[in-house]
Each structure stands twice: as C-alpha cells, then as structure tokens.
Design a protein that fits this description.
33% of the residues are buried. Strands 8-11-14-17-20-25-28-31-34-37-39-40 form a twelve-stranded mixed sheet, with helices on one face. It has four helices and 40 strands. It has three domains: 3-96, Udp-n-acetylmuramoylalanyl-d-glutamate--2,6- Diaminopimelate Ligase, Chain: A, domain 1, CATH 3.40.1390; 102-314, UDP N-Acetylglucosamine Acyltransferase, domain 1 (3 Solenoid); 320-349. Helices cover 17% and strands 29% of the residues. By secondary structure, it is an alpha/beta fold.
C-alpha cells in the first residue's frame, strides 16, 4: 500500500513540514530508515538519527526543533504526541492487511455452529458444534474452536490457537500463535496407593473485551466455576494462568510469568517477566512486581515489590546494597576477631 505525506497527516491531524506529495510504502526504525518508508521520533536520545535517516516521512512532536539541517528528501509531520500517532498508523496498517471474509475450502465448520458477518476462517481450522463466532472475527490456519464456545466480534486468532469447550470470549480479543484457552487445570490428588488421580476440570474460562493473550500462553479452565480474565488484560508470551484465577481489569503480565490456582489479581497490576505467584492469595489493585520475583503473600494496594520472596522495593534495594558489602564486612569482622584475640592474650599474660 502506498500513502502520501498529505494522506498520513490527515489521518493523525498532523502539520506537514516538507513535501506533502512524497509517498511511503512501508515503515522503519529511524536509525534504519530507507527511501519510501515512514518512521517516527519520540525519544530525544534518538534525535541524532533524524539528521542521517533516509526515511521519506518522519513523525515528530510539535515541540521538535532541529539543531541542524535535515535531509531535504525527508518530510516531517508534526503532532502533539509522535509515539501514539505512529501507533495509530500501525493499527490502521495492520487492519488493512486483514484477510478478506470467507471460509477456506480446507477449513471444517460444523453445521451446528454459527458464524457472524464477514468472518474469515483459514485452512485446517475447525469450528465445533455449538460454537458461535462474532462478526468480523479472523481465524487463521490451524485453529481449534471447541464445542459451545461463544466468541464476540472483531477477535483475531492467529495460527495454532486452541479454544476448548464452553469458553466465553468477549469482543476485540487477540490470541497469538499457540495460545491455549481452557485446557484442564493442574488438578490431581494422591490416592491410598500414593498415586495421583486426576480431578475432573468441569469449569470454563471467561475472557472479557479487549484482552490480548501472547504466543504459547495458557489459561486453564476452572475446576468448578470460571477462570476469569477481565477487560483490557494483556498477557505476554509464555504466560501461565492457573485454574480458578481471576485477573482484574487492565492488568499486564510480562513473559514467563505464572499464577497458581485460585489467586485473585486486582486491577492495573503489573507483573514483570518470570514473576511467580503462589495460589490462593489476593493481589490488591495497582501492585507492581519486578522481574523474577516470587510473590508468596498478599501485598497491599499500589505497592512495588522486588525479590524472592518479594518484599517492598525500597527494603529489597537496601538488602541488595548491604549484600554487596558482605566481603568487606567479613574482612572487618575477621580483623576485629584477631584484635580481640591479641588483647585477650595480652591480658592473660598481664
């Protein structure tokens, strides 16, 4: 697709500085800009690249004033906030690349399922009996949608996604490649022979609107009732959500984080990469947990935690600083012990 600077400026209410008729066909990072590409400058530490970039159009903040001459072939578009404007353009570009509605001849759609308007279903995907797919939803190749799944409109399921039976999916949700929704929770109990017997997982997963689930992430179905992912939650790749977990609105979790069963996570919580959370606790609203931390007890609202076990960030930083001084402290203690030994010897020889 080809767009002129004039068209781009109209999309984001920007002011053009340069040639309004220059065109672009793709996007690039500013330091790697080539002719015919669109880029942006939002972070001042990248400003030097704008004087050398070959990008044809660069989106900048209204406040940007060049310190030296910019390539005459580079047209600027000034907006109040360059990063968010560029993100809007990327969203538009992404939507323009959506598949045309239709069901591929090599897809399998059960006649007892219901498809909304303008749905796309790719090759080798399977839609089970009783499933309902909302309008404009895009289902790529190799996707499994199980019995009686209910899915809203404008969802995207990338290749290899699996949505198991009875799960309820809201509108505008995105599931990246390999995500699994509604697999059995990890439920086993030892029997008299000290072997583990499976506890049937008969609940489901409920995912509300505007949720994003990263590649190869798993949200387990509840043992009884529902595992619930509230509106606006964003899960990175390789995230594990255990059975009967409830995650509050607009919570975000980075890659390889995991939450054990029956834990409740509040609104606007942020969990860094590889954070582990034990089961059956409640995380209050606004909590932030740093990467590789282990959360073993319920934190208070809006607290910032680090470490394993996770504690208040300020306290953890003091402990880290103290631990760096341990070798010197040990040397001082050894010297003091030697001095005490000499004093005792002197006193005994008195």
């Amino acid at each position: 697709m080809e767009f002129s600077a004039k068209q781009i400026a109209a999309m984001i209410d920007g002011k053009i500085v340069g040639n309004p008729d220059v065109t672009v066909t793709s996007v690039s990072k500013i330091e790697e800009g080539k002719a015919g590409t669109l880029s942006f400058l939002a972070n001042p530490k990248y400003e030097d690249h704008i004087y050398t970039t070959k990008a044809s159009v660069v989106i900048v903040n209204d406040s940007f004033e060049p310190r030296q001459e910019i390539n005459p072939a580079c047209t600027l578009i000034k907006v109040p906030e360059a990063y968010s404007s560029f993100a809007r353009l990327l969203e538009f570009y992404d939507k323009a690349r959506m598949k045309a509605p239709g069901v591929h001849q090599m897809a399998s759609v059960d006649p007892l399922s219901v498809l909304g308007k303008d749905v796309y279903i790719g090759a080798f995907s399977y839609i089970a009996p009783g499933a309902v797919i909302g309008d404009r939803t895009q289902i790529y190749s190799g996707v499994y949608v199980g019995d009686d799944v209910k899915m809203g409109s404008d969802c995207t399921l990338y290749p290899g996604v699996k949505i198991h039976r009875d799960c309820l999916i809201g509108n505008h949700c995105t599931f990246h490649a390999g995500a699994v929704i509604g697999a059995d929770g990890f439920g086993f109990v030892p029997n008299e022979e000290n072997k583990y017997e499976r506890i049937p997982q008969i609940g489901n997963v409920v995912i509300e609107d505007y949720v994003s689930v990263g590649a190869n992430s798993c949200v387990d179905r509840a043992t009884i009732g529902s595992t619930i992912i509230r509106k606006g939650v964003k899960l990175d790749n390789l995230v594990q959500i255990g059975h009967n977990v409830i995650i509050g609105d607009n919570t975000v979790m980075a890659a390889q984080a995991g939450i054990a069963g029956s834990t409740k996570v509040g609104k606007n919580v942020m969990l860094g990469g590889q954070v582990g959370v034990i089961g059956h606790i409640e995380i209050a609203d606004g909590v932030k947990v740093g990467a590789q931390s282990g959360l073993a007890k319920a934190p208070k609202a809006n607290s910032v935690l680090l470490g394993s076990p996770a504690i208040e960030a300020d306290e953890q930083k003091k402990m880290w600083m103290a631990s760096r001084r341990l070798p010197q402290l040990m040397e001082r203690i050894a010297a003091m012990e030697e001095e005490i030994k000499k004093l005792k010897e002197k006193a005994s020889n008195g």
